[in-house]
Amino acid sequence: MKAWVLDAFGPPDSLVWRDIETPRPAPGEVLIRVRAAGVNPVDWKIAEGGLARLFPCKFPLIPGWDAAGTVAALGEGVEGFAIGEKVWSFCRKPDIQWGTYAEYVAMDAAAVAPMPASADFAQASAIPLAGLTAWQSLFDVAHIRPGQTVLIHAGAGGVGSLAVPLAHWAGARVIATARAANHDYVRGLGADLVIDYTAEDFARAVRRAAPDGVDVAFGTVGGEVLARSYETVKPGGILVSITDKTDKDLAERLGIRVKYVFVKPDGAQLRRLAGLMDQGILPAPEMVEMPMAQAAEALAHSRTGHVRGKIALMVA
Question: What residue ranges of the chain are covered by domains with CATH 3.40.50.720?
Fold first, then answer.
């Protein structure tokens, strides 16, 4: 098969498109013929060595954790899938090496699910990592409930554009941050209030809208934005971060809870997300489709931090 390969950590233009042995599905695995690979910020971070402290990284290394495609082969003991069936998966493995910027990827069947009937390959490839991140943060950790107020940063981004409609569906009042140009888009996703973080202090704006503080702050942006988000949470509320580690000492002084979330593969939750997409509850994000040949350009674009929706690399 052909794949984008790194022989050492480096910038996006270090990727080399070359022939590599097609994987064979081990027992319990599904071999996916990749039709679209979703692009996420973690991909360029992996390429540059940014996750080497968290995961064993082996070379040659193929980046990419999101895939949508068809079942090409089934490993021993795998049931419930058919050859040629359209599937999607968050393909994070214990070791970082065999990713989705390739014509084929093998993944544990427990992390694979049928694609939403309403989505094409590009749209489906955009969802797994971001959708599972939003789901696990909002429901498994924050346990959001109807009537609560939820702050979601970067409402037009990859995770935020899925978290906003999920929180709206759950019956929460949704406050999101976004640049002014994205306000209509984010309101259309279900946000009740959108704050232009470039024009005003978002923490003060949140406190004006929710004087007692929010029940849940979802930190999809790190650094100073995450640091200021602590002050937006009401006593007894929770701050969930998917970027930086949380400050438990500060949280204790403020009387709030904090949790850092690193998303896990989960085929059952992908089935839930597929159902919500097919019901029209979870809209597909805006897509930028690029040919797989432009992987370096896609990573460079992702690195800017200003992608509206998601990027998909398409495999012919």
Answer: 130-260
What stretch(es) of the chain map to CATH 3.90.180.10?
Answer: 2-127+284-314
Backbone φ and ψ of 156, nearest 5°: -95, -5
Give the pair of three-digit tokens for residue 273: 């997300």
Q: Tokens 């984010």, residue?
A: 186
pLDDT at residue number 273: 98
Using the structure block, give the residue that is written with the tokens 């050492």: 8
Inform me whether the pLDDT recorded for 307 exceeds 90.
no
From CA 61, how far away is CA 50, in angstroms rounded? 14
The verdict on domain 2-127+284-314 having CATH code 3.40.50.620 is no
pLDDT digits (tens, 9 = 90+) for 251-288: 999 999 999 999 999 999 999 999 999 999 999 988 99
CATH of domain 130-260: 3.40.50.720
Please list the residues that pair with 105 across neighbouring strands. Answer: 32
